[in-house]
């Protein structure tokens, strides 16, 4: 019994793991000691020292990890399966979580490797350094783990066996999909075993009448889109990372994306999931029914749980029919107030055909034009302050075009839009989307980027950007863009290098500001490693406690947001 | 000088086309249709010539069913001054199109006729050459650069040919067909879309132009190319050698 609770927390000590580029493999003993000496990490409870140390550590991390790394790393933004971290300290407003490897977790030995090889076969147990390097590093190159083992199961049964074994051996694991997450949730923190679902990429069934797709969690989103295209349907979500991200990860992160304003969130579109719990039990909630009111709908716990409650292995999702009339307009507005009014008007005048409403400001446009290849300004040259992308999807080309043109011309007449272009064919539409979707990539190219994904009341959204600009002055560029239709701001602060002084100006100010306006510190990216600590800015403590109780009941070992010292207390 | 540009309404370049189950053609119902990319380039070139002051008017012409008017509106939104729609149902092969264009040239009397090098639905690459023949005008096909000399009444055209680039000097009036690298077409801005609503599109029928559309060609069947077979991962060098020897017969 004790053992079970013991295993319940799978986060463990990180030390110089992230710092040294070359020192990927750490032995537990060196880790423990190096940590304390090298960076003066203090293991005291409630110590405020952790703030300083964390920042310094992260500063050094980024310094090493940033730059012209591995070209094999995928270059798309998005979300992935997350695994989050248990914390030794609850340091509010710290740059990143202060994590320490829990000595209760075991380390790999050769028996473990043999067992895994027995279950998965030789080929799918990977210890090759180059492949591990890729699996250990996230897309933003901000986080690097030191895992020594990568497993690639091909079926739910194999995952169940692996997890049952890891549970019994007290080995920590991290589930991984496309590894496109932006909050460090898809890579190991220390030497967790990486369970990568890429080989589970089969479409199990598709019902052409209802549009319900059942597939394995490792299917890449873009491949699903291509498959559905041949059937006359589309995926209800779309994000810049679609070429690499996997549906299991999207579901585990409750990914938002560009079309949420039209099709809603995954909570509404996912009809069922199959998950494997930490102890190896398989939960079959893979219903393919539109309506099923038979008791608590537990799948919602797993959607957005970032891998902390179980590994999603199959997904059943409702896909909308593909409509032929898609139109895209790229517009310029003179101020933020016009953008807001435009949104209100668009919802009313375009109504049922509105399928995306995105915005970016002039600094974002500058960035993309200067740093991304093959991108041209859709509008005639002359800088505007705000740009808005409006997409409509309808079933009748003539009707949609008429509606959209009428709306745009009216908006122009009343001064809501200062200029705009309408895409005349699909290629033009793709090049407009490239401007918006390429922002993450462009940001990585110019240097260091502090990325924040916030949900805020639409009227107040841009005030944060302006205040941040005042705070930072000339030391950093504040770039803003996002899903204005959902009230989701992607705030990016771009500096030539990672700098603790700048970070101190940003955090905790940005979280406090968000909290003050009852916003969310993570609209769609999830908490991961980056914001695990900051959950209290958007969730009250009693809500958090109930959530943790639920997690304990599921006896999860995978990973936890929760404070490990509390867990340790419970064991004794 | 007037420039006439012929534009064609085709299945959008980015759409994954499907063959109709009865193999009579490609599925065009419920599929996005747009202006042929080469025709866009042709129109863009005409607009640039006009903007440089060497032409007074750009007229866009399209032939086909009623929906061609949408494509013409796009052309007008890009900046063409007037549109002409020749309404014809049924298949229009290049020779018919060339004959209709000849009739229109006699009406409009342009100094330059610019077309896309080919349409992406039939890939014929014939209309420009045929109309030049019918009109007995010089032709500069696969143009990747066009430089007009108004005084000398001629145009220098760089052509993309197999060996590289060939530069021709043509007397006006002439026919030019455009290739991909000639220019990057502009987008249709909202103010121009607004203006386009009041621009005129004149309608003709083949009878008005005294052209009889009869085709001596008939599409018998359209099939998809054979699907690419998946690659096979071999497990050893011996197996590879064996396959090369016995299956592919290359060694």
Overview of the structural elements:
The complex is a heterodimer of chains A (572) and B (251). Chain A is an alpha+beta fold. Among the domains of chain A are: 2-39 and 323-439, Alpha-Beta Plaits, CATH 3.30.70; 203-318, Uridine Diphospho-n-acetylenolpyruvylglucosamine Reductase, domain 3 (2-Layer Sandwich), CATH 3.30.465.10; 448-526, 2-Layer Sandwich (Alpha-Beta Plaits). Chain A is 36% helix and 16% strand. With 251 residues, chain B is α/β, with parallel strands linked by helices. Chain B has one domain (2-225): 3-Layer(aba) Sandwich (Rossmann fold). Chain B has helices at residues 37-51, 68-78, 94-108, 127-135, 190-196, 237-246, and strands at residues 2-6, 9-11, 33-35, 57-64, 82-87, 112-116, 139-149, 154-161, 164-171, 174-178, 188-189, 201-204. In chain B, strand 8 and strand 9 form a beta hairpin. The relative contact order of chain B is 0.18. Chains A and B meet through strand 10, helix 14, strand 13 and helix 15 of A and helix 2, strand 11 and helix 5 of B. Chain B: Residues 23-213 form the Electron transfer flavoprotein alpha/beta-subunit N-terminal domain. Chain B: Heterodimer of an alpha and a beta subunit. Chain B: This is Electron transfer flavoprotein subunit beta.
Short description:
Chain A: InterPro entries: FAD-bd_oxidored_4_C (IPR004113), FAD-bd_PCMH (IPR016166), FAD-bd_PCMH-like_sf (IPR036318), FAD-bd_PCMH_sub1 (IPR016167), FAD-bd_PCMH_sub2 (IPR016169), FAD-linked_Oxase-like_C (IPR016164), FAD-oxidored/transferase_4 (IPR051264), Oxid_FAD_bind_N (IPR006094). The complex is a heterodimer of chains A (572) and B (251). Chain A has 572 residues and is of the alpha+beta class.
Q: Which two chains share the most extensive interface? A: A-B, 30 and 22 residues
- The chain-level mean pLDDT of chain A equals 79
Overall structural domain count of chain B: 1
- The CATH class designation of chain B is Alpha Beta
């Amino acid at each position: 019994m004790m053992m079970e609770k013991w295993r319940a927390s799978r986060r463990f000590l990180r030390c110089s793991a992230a710092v040294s580029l070359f020192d990927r493999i750490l032995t537990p003993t060196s880790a423990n000691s190096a940590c304390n000496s090298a960076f003066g990490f203090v293991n005291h409870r409630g110590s405020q020292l952790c703030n300083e140390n964390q920042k310094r550590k992260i500063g050094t991390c980024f310094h090493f990890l940033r730059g012209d790394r591995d070209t094999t790393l995928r270059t798309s933004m998005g979300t992935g399966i997350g695994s989050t971290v248990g914390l030794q300290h609850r340091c509010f407003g710290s740059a990143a979580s202060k994590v320490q490897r829990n000595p209760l977790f075991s380390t790999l030995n050769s028996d473990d490797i043999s067992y895994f090889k027995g279950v998965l076969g030789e080929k799918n147990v990977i210890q090759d350094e180059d492949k591990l390097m890729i699996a250990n590093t996230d897309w933003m190159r901000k986080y690097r783990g030191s895992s020594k083992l990568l497993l690639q199961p091909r079926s739910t049964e194999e995952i169940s066996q692996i997890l049952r074994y890891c549970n019994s051996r007290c080995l920590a694991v991290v589930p991984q999909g496309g590894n496109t997450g932006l909050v460090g949730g898809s890579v190991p923190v220390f030497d967790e075993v990486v369970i990568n679902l890429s080989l589970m990429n089969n479409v199990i069934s598709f019902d052409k009448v209802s549009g319900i797709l059942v597939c394995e969690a490792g299917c890449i989103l873009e491949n699903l889109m291509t498959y559905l295209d041949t059937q006359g349907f589309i995926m209800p979500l779309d994000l810049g990372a679609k070429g690499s991200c996997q549906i299991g990860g999207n579901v585990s992160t409750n990914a938002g994306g560009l079309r949420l304003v039209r099709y809603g969130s995954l909570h509404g579109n996912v009809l069922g999931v199959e998950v494997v719990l930490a102890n190896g039990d398989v939960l079959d909630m893979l219903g393919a029914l539109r309506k099923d009111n038979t008791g608590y709908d537990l799948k919602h716990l797993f959607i957005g749980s970032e891998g902390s409650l179980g590994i999603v292995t199959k997904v059943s999702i409702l896909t909308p029919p593909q409509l032929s009339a898609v139109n895209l307009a790229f517009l310029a507005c003179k101020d933020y107030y016009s953008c807001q009014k435009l949104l209100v008007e668009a919802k009313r005048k375009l109504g049922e055909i509105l399928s995306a409403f995105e915005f970016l400001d002039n600094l974002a446009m500058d960035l993309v034009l200067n740093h991304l290849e093959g991108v041209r300004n859709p509008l005639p040259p002359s800088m505007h302050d705000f740009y808005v992308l409006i997409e409509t999807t309808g079933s009748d080309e003539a009707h949609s075009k008429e509606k959209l043109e009428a709306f745009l011309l009216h908006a122009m007449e009343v001064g809501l839009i200062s200029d705009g272009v309408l895409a005349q064919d699909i290629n033009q539409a793709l090049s407009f989307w490239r401007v918006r979707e390429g922002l993450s990539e462009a940001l990585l190219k110019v240097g260091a980027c502090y990325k924040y994904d916030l949900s805020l009341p639409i009227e107040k959204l841009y005030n944060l950007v302006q205040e941040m600009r005042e705070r930072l002055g000339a030391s950093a560029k504040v770039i803003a863009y996002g899903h204005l239709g959902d009230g989701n701001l992607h705030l990016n602060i771009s500096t030539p290098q990672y700098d603790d002084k700048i970070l101190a100006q940003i955090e905790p100010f940005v979280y406090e500001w968000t909290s003050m306006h009852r916003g969310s510190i993570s609209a769609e990216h999830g908490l991961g490693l980056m914001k695990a600590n900051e959950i209290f800015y958007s969730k009250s403590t009693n809500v958090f406690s109930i959530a943790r109780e639920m997690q304990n009941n599921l006896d999860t070992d995978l990973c936890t947001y929760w404070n490990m010292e509390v867990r340790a207390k419970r064991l004794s | 000088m007037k420039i006439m540009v012929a534009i064609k309404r085709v299945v959008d370049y980015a759409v994954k086309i499907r063959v109709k189950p009865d193999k009579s053609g490609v599925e065009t119902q419920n599929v996005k249709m747009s202006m042929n990319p080469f025709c866009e380039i042709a129109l863009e070139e005409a607009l640039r010539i006009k903007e440089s002051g060497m032409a007074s008017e750009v007229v866009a012409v399209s032939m086909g069913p009623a929906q061609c008017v949408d494509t013409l509106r796009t052309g007008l939104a890009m900046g063409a001054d007037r549109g002409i729609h020749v309404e014809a149902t049924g298949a229009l092969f290049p020779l018919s199109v060339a004959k209709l264009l000849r009739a229109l040239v006699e009406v409009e009397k342009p100094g330059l006729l610019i077309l896309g090098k080919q349409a992406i639905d039939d890939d014929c690459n014939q209309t420009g050459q045929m109309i030049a023949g019918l009109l007995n005008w010089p032709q500069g096909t696969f143009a990747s650069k066009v430089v007009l000399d108004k005084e000398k009444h001629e145009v220098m055209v760089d052509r993309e040919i197999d060996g590289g680039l060939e530069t021709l000097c043509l007397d006006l009036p002439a026919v030019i067909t455009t290739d991909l690298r000639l220019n990057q077409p502009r987008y249709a801005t909202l103010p121009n879309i607004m203006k386009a609503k009041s621009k005129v599109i004149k309608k003709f029928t083949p009878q008005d132009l005294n052209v009889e559309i009869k085709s001596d060609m008939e599409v018998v069947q359209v099939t998809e190319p054979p699907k690419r077979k998946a690659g096979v991962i071999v497990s050893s060098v011996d197996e590879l050698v064996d396959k090369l020897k016995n299956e592919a017969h290359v060694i």
